[in-house]
Specification:
Number of helices: 2
Number of strands: 9
Helix content: 10-25%
Order of helices and strands: HHEEEEEEEEE
Strand order of the largest sheet: 3-4-8-7-6-5
Shape: globular
Radius of gyration: 15 Å
Strand content: 25-35%
Oligomer: single chain
Distance between the termini: 18 Å
């Protein structure tokens, strides 16, 4: 069980968070879009830390699970906590895929595929605009002002 509060933001909180998004972030996070490959700001990030949801700040993936998949998007073999990412069957674009969304705010993150490295053999393929990065030792963002685990440093 996660130490983070997974209850969704209130309508007012969500409206405030959405107001701070760029047009690209809105298109990807809220309308299930995809950014172009090989252009995301986090594709080549090598810093140690935690990648969180761009909208609500929930920690999603640790840098220690990031790998170079060669696909053009940041890829991870395991989530920060399985409860932080929700999977949805996606049959758009004539394919059957598994979409991944933030478990707290339902923002679109990307897709998960069964072709990753050991130990999970999963490839969580993410849009950089769906993410924010917190270096180890820095405080997690807490846009919902939840306190608790969100008040702890990343690591």
């Amino acid at each position: 069980m996660t130490a983070f509060d997974l209850s969704p933001p209130s309508d007012a909180q969500r409206d405030a968070l959405v107001a701070g998004l760029s047009a690209d972030e809105r298109r990807v996070l809220l309308q299930h879009g995809t950014e172009a490959p090989f252009c995301g700001v986090f594709l080549d990030n090598k810093q140690d830390g935690v990648y969180g949801c761009r909208l609500c700040g929930l920690p999603l993936f640790r840098s220690s699970t990031k790998f170079d998949s060669g696909t053009g998007w940041p890829s991870f073999f395991a989530p920060f906590d399985p409860d932080h990412v929700r999977e949805i069957r996606d049959v758009s674009h004539g394919m059957v895929r598994t979409e991944i969304v933030c478990a707290r705010c339902d923002s679109h993150l990307g897709h998960v595929f069964p072709d990753g490295p050991p130990p999970t053999f999963e490839r969580h393929c993410l849009n950089s605009v769906s993410l924010q990065f917190t270096a180890n030792g820095q405080p997690y963002p807490d846009p919902l002002q939840r306190g608790g685990a969100e008040a702890q440093p990343a690591g």
